[in-house]
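Troubleshooting: if your tokenizer reports a length mismatch, compare your output against this known-good record of 152 residues.
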Amino acid sequence: MPVLGICRGMQLINVAFGGTLRQHLPEDLEHEEHRRTVGSFDDADHDVRLTAGSLAARAAGEEIHATKSHHHQGVAEVGDGLEVTGVSMLDDLPEAIEAPRHRFVLGVQWHPEADERSHVVGALVEHATAYLDEDGVAGAGAIAYRSGRGSE
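Known-good structure output:
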């Protein structure tokens, strides 16, 4: 099943794979560039360099990606089986991780859902649709939804 971890979700993927986190980036990096305005994406853009051919670069559709970023924690030690495929151009902080042994496990430290130009969420939807089609869970690109009460 395709997985996309956004911001804290990326951190959770890393910890689930046995990695660790930097607890407070302003202290570790001696700057506030990853969370310029607390509680806001205003003036929060910075560029991330994505590894050519990586899932992150394919999902973003480019190798230099402008991001909406807002976080004070980040990846320290990378979890087993994960690969850093994107780094902040500010300070080389990991900003994209993925699990190459899996079809689509991607974590991004930025917020693609807050950027109408981003293709990252769309890439997840495409992979989820293909996953459903291949496994016969839903047909011809349909995405099934079932509420907690069993209705569709």
